[in-house]
Amino acid sequence: PPHWLLVRKDSSCWAWVDTLGRASKPFSAQSVGLLRSGLATYTENKFLGIVDRAGNKVTKAVFQSIGPFQGGGAIAQNQQGLFGVLNQHGGWAIEPEFDRIIACPDAQVV
Question: What are the CA-CA distances from residue 52 to residues 16, 57, 96, 105, 106 (Å)?
């Protein structure tokens, strides 16, 4: 499989490009995190959202924090400061009603 690189086209326009030269559709963001499991975080107006490898924004930038996707989910903190777990489609697998969540290495979200 090809490797993916993040390229910045200008101050707020980004795209994923694979090692075969194929590019995703451009997307706007102030910054972009690492691509993991086909998803990455992006920042807009001090909040985080999720973008996929095709350049589609999976969620709006409404989260205070989003951890890396592992086992099918990512720990996320909403604007009220509560933690839950997002699935890979951007929905809540575990609703944000906790003061803290700690990831276990072998955990899987189903």
Answer: 9, 6, 22, 23, 24
> Pick from 45, 44, 81, 87: which is nearest to 65 by CA?
81
If you average pLDDT over residues 39-53, what whole number do you get?
Answer: 95
Question: CB of 100 within 8 A of CB of 76?
Answer: no
Task: Give the span between the Cα atoms of 58 and 74, in whole angstroms.
Answer: 13
User: In this predicted model, what pLDDT tens digit does every residue of 88-99 receive, in sequence order?
Assistant: 999 999 999 999
- Tally the residues of the chain: 110
Q: Has residue 106 got a pLDDT over 70?
A: no
Q: Is 11 exposed, middle or buried (0-12, 13-18, 19+ CB in 10 A)?
A: exposed
The identity of residue 57, as a single letter, is: K
Distance CA 2, CA 77 (A): 32
